[in-house]
Write a structure and sequence with these properties.
about 90 residues
């Protein structure tokens, strides 16, 4: 009887802890995805502004372009992308 009560309390505690941990992980994942979308948008806008490639080839502004590209690649590699099966 006492063992059943203790096991029930442990199971309920573990369930609640797991629920809150998964919710927090999902919140962090949403933040990272939002950041990834912002970087993608900024990268696209920068490419539109620099359609001729003058800024990207410059040493000072080219550094910024390269770092944005590296950041985009890093963020893209964090999550698996779902591909539709044909």
């Amino acid at each position: 009887m006492i063992i059943e009560i203790i096991l029930t309390i442990i199971i309920i505690t573990l369930g609640i802890t797991l629920f809150y941990a998964l919710r927090r992980i999902n919140q962090y994942e949403d933040i990272i995805v939002d950041f990834q979308n912002i970087i993608r948008f900024a990268s696209e806008k920068m490419k539109q502004v620099d359609s001729a490639g003058h800024y990207e080839s410059d040493d000072e502004t080219g550094f910024f372009f390269e770092e944005i590209k590296k950041l985009q690649i890093l963020l893209d590699s964090l999550f698996e992308t779902e591909q539709e099966k044909k």
